[in-house]
Amino acid sequence: MNWSRAGESSATTFGEVREQLLNYFINPAIWTQLLVGGLKIIVIVIAGRLTIKIANKALHHILMAKEKGPLKFDTRRANTFGKLIGNIISYVVNFIMILMILNLFGFRLEPLLAGAGVIGLAVGFGAQSLVKDVITGFFIIFEDQFSVGDVIQINTYKGTVEEIGLRITKIKSWTGEVYIIPNGTISQVTNFSLYNSLAVVDVSVSYEEDIDKAMEVLKTSVHNFFEKSENIVLEPEVLGVQKLGASEVILRVIAECKPNTHAPVARELNGEIKRAFKDAGIAIPYPKLITYHRGEGAEETWKKSSTN
Questions:
Q1: Alpha-carbon gap, residue 179 to 147, rounded angstroms
Q2: Which option is the CATH number for 2-107: 1.20.120, 3.40.50, 2.60.40, 1.10.287?
Q3: Is this model's pTM higher than 0.85 or not?
Q4: CB 251 within 8 A of CB 238
């Protein structure tokens, strides 16, 4: 008897719950409220995205106007601050969007903001590495140690700076890898983009050649190359004999170039000098091998190798 009453009671309770759920989902007021809330959320998200886009465009136009105006900013620092301020704008707008959406669901913002302050204080004490990253990033930007577009080397990583944030720095190597480095771990930085670089080219000439003639050909060829090159700042200088090697005389040429262009300039100079030496008939030494056969004298073998 008791079991039957319990079964009837549970069946009645299940039926009531099902009826309440059915009434909830078929209630037009509920669907209207959900539809209005969804539309409000969509409007908030679209407005936030438009705000970020408009702010970034306005920031870009401001920086471009400063570059063209009478008070010009350094392009390196302008790019760095542009990306940094753009990130800050994105964070702030997204945070405001989240607060507005929570407010639509009935959450009170005052306790949330107070709780966020307490949580931020706790994170500040617990996440010391994060605080170190932020402080180091601030001083990197403030002291202008490097900027977006610079070619730098951080510890063992070398590449072009893609982004500088308060927490991390992104650099891209010439082979395409992107290194994401926490600012707090940056202990040593080499910047290759601040000052002009120096291209050093060593040219080998055979001992049989006239050194004075070779140096004159060098001076003429590097002068012609300087006339048509856009990366060389000053006319290349032929220093003279750098070293007397085992089978060659090494002549050295130096050229002051724009920042971080010494490698392509050195390659182009090597090609220009090779063509000039070929036209002038100046031989570039290469390894030679003389084989002595048993039963032959050294003088006879030398004559054979000379005739060959």
A1: 16
A2: 1.10.287
A3: no
A4: yes
